Amino acid sequence: MKIQRARHFRHGRIEIIPMIDVMFFLLVTFMLASLSMQSLNSIAVNLPKGNAESMEHQEPITLTVTHDSKIFIDKTPTTLEQLAFVLKPMLKTNDLGVVVNADTDAPEGTVVEAMIEARRAGVEKFLIAVKH
């Protein structure tokens, strides 16, 4: 006569399908991350070695005109009369462009006068900031 056990023990199973999904997700994530670290707009060449200084990323200078005609260069408040004096030391010889960030309710005359003063300071290119 056989004696039956009171409890049945189940053996644990490793489900492989969810593990494959997780591994595939990690593989794709690392592939996309490594692709974003490359410069894809250039042709791969063997670069020469040198000891030049590394270039710094420079943010453009922003000329902001608010709806109540207040003028800011980057985040520094200024007046129309002082605009050229404040802007001139900030301009670099290799980057003579300024981003104009004007409020939609800002008077057009004030925006144009600020751009004329920036031109007097030596600005050669204006970029108009818009929202899409």
Short description:
With 132 residues, this protein is an alpha/beta fold.
Describe what this molecule looks like in 3D.
This protein is an alpha/beta fold and 132 residues long. The protein has a domain of 68 residues: 2-Layer Sandwich (Nucleotidyltransferase, domain 5). Helices cover 30% and strands 16% of the residues. The protein contains three helices and five strands. The protein has a five-stranded mixed sheet with strand order 3-2-1-4-5. The longest helix has 21 residues. The model has no long low-confidence stretch (mean pLDDT 81).
**Percent helix among the residues?**
25-40%
Distance between the termini: 83 Å
Query: Beta-strand percentage?
Result: 15-25%
The biggest sheet amounts to: 5 strands, mixed
- The total count of strands amounts to 5
Rg value: 31 Å
Average pLDDT rating = 81
Largest sheet, spatial ordering of strands: 3-2-1-4-5
CATH A-level architecture of the domain at 61-128: 2-Layer Sandwich
CATH fold annotation of the domain at 61-128: Nucleotidyltransferase, domain 5
Helix/strand order: HEEEHEHE
Shape: elongated
What would the keywords be for this entry?
single chain; 132 residues; alpha/beta; Nucleotidyltransferase, domain 5; 5-stranded mixed sheet; 30% helix; 16% strand
